Amino acid sequence: MPVAAHLGFLVPAYGQRNLSGTPEIELALHKLNVLGSVLMIAAHPDDENTALLAYYARGRSMRTGYLSLTRGEGGQNLIGPEQGDLLGVIRTQELLAARHIDGAEQFFTRAIDFGYSKSADETLGKWGRDKVLSDVVWVIRNFRPDVVILRFSGTPRDGHGHHQASAILGKEAFSAAADKDRFPEQLRYVRPWQAKRLLFNIFSFSAEQEKEAREMPRRVDVDTGEFNPVLGKSYTEIAGISRSQHRSQGMGAPERRGPSHNYLVTIAGLPADHDALDDVDTAWTRVPGGEAVGRILAEAERTFVPEQPEKTIPLLLKARPMIAAIDDPLAKRKLDELDEALALCSGLWLDAIADRYAAAPGSTVNVELEAINRSTFPVAWAGYSLISARGASTGHNMDSLAANQPKRVTDAWPFAADQAYSQPYWLRKPHTGDTYEIEDQRLIGMADTPPVLTAKFALRFHDVTITLQRAVRYRYVDPTEGELTRSLVVVPQVAVNLPEAVELFPSEKPKKIEIAVKANVAGAAGELRLDLPPGWRAEPVSQPFRVSDAGGELTLAFSITPPRADAQGRLRAIARVDGKEISSGMTVIAFPHIPPQTIFPDAAAKLERTDVMLTARKIGYVMGAGDQVPEALGQLGCEVTLLSAREMAESDLSGFDAIVTGVRAYNVRADLRVNQQRLLDYVHNGGTLIVQYNVAEGGPFGGRRSGDLAHIGPYPLEVGRGRVSVEEAPVRFLVPDHPVMVSPNHVSERDFEGWIQERGLYFASEWDAHYQAVLETHDPGEKPLEGGMLYTRYGKGVYIFSAFSWFRELPAGVPGAYRIFANMLSARGDR
Ligand SMILES: [Zn+2]
Question: Which of 162, 181, 208, 479 ranks highest by number of CB atoms within 10 Å?
Fold first, then answer.
């Protein structure tokens, strides 16, 4: 990428560099002599062969990249309630954390992971084939890989439609990238590029696949179990650490030792027999005028003395003007790498630190720039500039940097009054379909948003001036974690946070909505008003506010009266501050394995007026992997208690009208499994228990027996792998006038309209005759699935197993989902 790769290379994703000292310099010097590159393409975060990436990046010093078509937005989050866009933000950072370890670069297309897809046609139809193909071509033209490696075959054997599509598009892009008539609008920025060959990395997960791979006539065998003594690890060990960064999908992986065979077969371009880069010149001889450069850099590598790295500097300085004279994108990239190698050899530390981590448009941040030369080689700090997308400032300070003596300069950066907030670039415009809307072609493909402010340092080594860039960051010390840094972000003067993305009005009664106004500057004052569609009323219409401290927050309550009849609309909260209208919230996503992410959701909510009747009020909720169902039940007027392990074991459950288990609760909560008998006793004595989806691991009817789900119901019931991924799939009512379908709300086909992403997953595959299957649904062309909702009376109470995706439909404000869930909660019916 013109900018992304550059910044990605210079700005470590998070935490410390995982290499330092001699191994880091030796590998950097070696890499200067390697001009080969490898790009892997698949569909999702976790599809990549991490060991292979580590082998090419760390072992072979190739420029290595992973293009994931999507950011994994449609998956299930195992570490928190974030779904959709926010999950995509988390997975993006998890991939960057993984790449930081295996040494590869990360890219994406505009495609969104819309959930499981059973065919490539559906996937390409939803994405728009040309739009995503254009992005794959764009990444190839920017990256200019010698070799492209596909993770999938492009056939139904790959399973998931996204997987198939990644290979179909990868194959087409391999030749389209070289064709100047394909996507000619890109040629303003890039040149066409023909990679030497396209390879398929055959799976060898099973002995059968392994055998099949071994029998392929022409294939390359890569042993990623090879030990690298400089790194002190094999590539499979590195892969284990890298892969374990995918925490939101529970991808913790072992660090394997010993041989590990990976097979690559050529599917287009020059066949390869021994190595993926057979017949590819990966030395300096490949660029005109490169031969002499190669000789000098080889000498630099050969004569490197670990105790005196500065002795290597003169050779690097000798090669530098020769590289600068070569007109080739490869030489330009190597020039940047060489400049970083100069910094490494001189122990040069460059830093640009802002006096705060968040700044509002129109405000000024102070930035302290620091340079220390930790060598005896004479280096002078010739000048610096601060640059943002909106311009640059320049400062001069011709100072020689004496050994280990820090030099500091302070400068100020005024942000323009109309400076945009630091929203991830792919979320700046709303997306309605299954691809992101991105205006600037140059941003497409980038893993992350470029820093809001960057410092450029000009440094003079003898008579050669080089420029090095560092993102301006905020540095702080956490008493338990030690020194940390975080990105500088531009935030609104006040953030307007709505409590919910959806406001449900189950009756015509007015409802109180509390809106939080969080000040990001001191003394923020203004007025907050609500914009409502016709027929809706807010009381009061607007309210003044004043927050004295930066970071302070206050809550303003409004009473909203909906129309009598069913209606939908959109509420928008607008703060007027200093004559400027702000309608943006602010969410910070913080986990220990990724840097904090600041997102600015629209200060708007969907309004849904629909009659929902309910006879249950007091609900106990057993939170599993994390979902937003309790908030949704709150919208129905329920009083929801989250049940802790202690309450599961000790408290009196009989006061609850219904108890609901959250998604994957049986998978992740041992206390739930241990107290299952208490829950069943609760049902037996007249309670209602609703069990949402859990991941199948076998059960009482056979298969791989696992304790987790063995006693999930009062009678035997096996959770299978059946799923219905088409959200419009027809739903049939299996039992006429079943109580859960008629009371207190009359459920009809209409209640299954407007669903998102899917119908459900991990349906029951077999069940005891005591259960009644209530609904049937299935994907087009597949066999009927009746295990999505099972109902049984047990003692005086009711037990319902429901693998429908309530955890997606309720937070999305699907009215039918509320009515059906209300019926399940009210299933005992005699209250
Ligand atoms: Zn995948």
Answer: 162
Centre of ligand 1 from the C-alpha of residue 153, in Å: 13
If pLDDT is split at 50, 70 and 90, which confidence band does 203 have?
Answer: confident
Neighbours of ion ligand 1 (CB under 5 A): 44, 47
According to the model, what pLDDT value does residue 718 have? 93
Instruction: Report pLDDT for 385.
Output: 94
Q: Is the pLDDT of residue 535 over 80?
A: yes
Residues 741 and 747 sit within 8 Å (Cβ to Cβ): yes
Q: How far is the CA of 594 from the centre of ligand 1 (A)?
A: 21
Ligand 1 centroid–CA 119 distance in Å is 13
Can you give the pLDDT at residue 217? 74
The rounded Å distance from CA 138 to ligand 1 centre is 22
Q: Which residues contact 85 (CB under 8 A, 6 or more apart)?
A: 73, 427, 599
Strand partners, 598: 588
Distance 375 CA to ligand 1 centre (A): 47
714-743: average pLDDT:
94
pLDDT at 11: 32
Q: Are 632 and 83 spatial neighbours (Cβ–Cβ below 8 Å)?
A: no
* DSSP for residue 146: S
Residue 649 Cα distances to 492, 662, 682, 709, angstroms: 46, 17, 12, 19
Distance 781 CA to ligand 1 centre (A): 23
CA of 434 to the centre of ligand 1 (A): 16
Asked if residue 577 lies in contact with residue 571, where contact means CB atoms within 8 angstroms, the answer is no
Q: Which ranges in 306-402 belong to alpha helices (H)? A: 313-324, 329-345
Question: From the CA of 762, how far away is ligand 1's center (Å)?
Answer: 18
Q: How far is the CA of 670 from the centre of ligand 1 (A)?
A: 28
| Residue 108 Cα to ligand 1 middle (Å) | 14
Residues above pLDDT 70, as percent of the chain: 95
pTM above 0.90, yes or no: no
- The alpha carbon of 47 and the centre of ligand 1 are apart by a number of angstroms equal to 5
Residue 527 reports pLDDT greater than 60: yes
- Give the pLDDT band (50/70/90) at residue 831: very low
Ligand 1 centroid to Cα of residue 161, in Å, is: 9
Q: How far is the CA of 756 from the centre of ligand 1 (A)?
A: 20
Q: How confident is the model at residue 707 (pLDDT cuts 50, 70, 90)?
A: low
What is the overall mean pLDDT for the chain?
91
| Averaged pLDDT, 789-793 | 97
Confidence band (pLDDT; 50, 70, 90) for 829?
low
- Output 707-712 pairs: Cβ under 8 A, ≥24 positions apart: 707/673, 708/666, 708/667, 708/673, 709/666, 709/667, 711/673, 711/676, 712/666, 712/676, 712/801
Alpha carbon of 68 to ligand 1 centroid (Å): 9
- The Cα–Cα gap between 535 and 545 comes to 27
Q: Which amino acid is at 325?
A: A
Q: In sequence order, what are the residues at sequence separation of 6 or more whose Cβ sits closer than 8 angstroms to the Cβ of residue 493?
A: 360, 361, 519, 520, 521, 524, 577, 578, 580, 582
pLDDT for res 16:
35
Q: Please give the Cα distance from 621 to 644 (Å, whole number).
A: 9
CB crowding 43-72: b at 16 or more within 10 Å, else e: bbbbbbbbbbbbbbbbbbbbbbbbbbbbbb
Mean pLDDT, range 366-370, rounded to an integer = 96
Say how far apart CA 304 and CA 294 lie, in whole Å.
15
The amino acid present at 202, given as its one-letter code, is I
DSSP classification of residue 186: G
Residue 811 main-chain phi, psi, to 5 deg: -65, -25
Distance from the alpha carbon of residue 41 to the mean position of ligand 1, in angstroms: 11
Element (H, E) at 824: helix 815-825
Whole-number pLDDT of residue 8 = 29
Classified as helix, coil or strand, 314 is: helix
Whether residue 88 has pLDDT greater than 60: yes
